[in-house]
Amino acid sequence: MLASFYQNFLEKYLNKAQLITLKMLVWLLQTQKQVRLERLAATLPLPIQQNSRRRHIQRFLTLNALSVVLLWFPIIEAIINQQHSGKKINRTEKRHSNFWIGLYGFNWIEALHGCQAWVEEMVGFIRNKQAYDQQGLRAMTLIQQSL
Q1: CA atoms of 103 and 119, how far apart (whole Å)
Q2: In principle, which of 13, 29, 57, 58 could form an S-S bond with 65, CB 3.0–4.6 Å?
Q3: What is the CA radius of gyration of the chain?
Q4: Cβ neighbours of residue 118 closer than 8 Å, sequence gap 6 or more
């Protein structure tokens, strides 16, 4: 995880939610074999939709207080610089296939177990999103039951 020196230093510049996000990302980077935004978003154990997790990571990595991240993880720089259209899509079909959920669901649950305390603390910070968090936690429970 983060060395106490780094944690003490970063506590001065990041709020609690941002510090938790950093801890989860460091944990994920240590457990995942690929450093891709989509892969990190798929396994970030927050109970929100994958696109929201992707945007959460993108916003976090572009924080002015965290510009050092580009020096720590230079692979991510190319991902941050990519332009996204931002168009909303009306979906009538399922967001992900059963196969996709089978592939990434296990990683998501594994990451949840590794970061459980941080996830619970992070969910507590964002009161206006609790209904969505409950949906995400229910999805995690359903995935766990099928494994």
Answers
A1: 21
A2: 13
A3: 16
A4: 20, 23, 24
Residues of the chain with pLDDT under 50: 69-71, 74, 76-79, 83-86
Domain borders along the chain are 4-86+96-146
63-67-68 Cα angle (round to 5): 135
pLDDT for 21:
93
Nearest to 43 by CA among 121, 102, 106: 106
pLDDT in tens, 101-131: 766 777 888 888 888 888 888 888 878 888 8
Residue 14 sits at φ, ψ, to 5 deg, of: -115, 145
Other Cβ atoms less than 10 A from the Cβ of 32: the count is 15
Show Cβ contacts of residue 137 under 8 Å, excluding neighbours closer than 6 positions: 47
Give the pair of three-digit tokens for residue 140: 């995690």
Q: Residue 146, exposed/middle/buried by CB under 10 A (0-12, 13-18, 19+)?
A: exposed
The pTM of this model reads 0.58
Q: d(Cα 119, Cα 146) in Å, to the nearest integer?
A: 22
- Give CA angle at 55 (54, 56), nearest 5°: 90
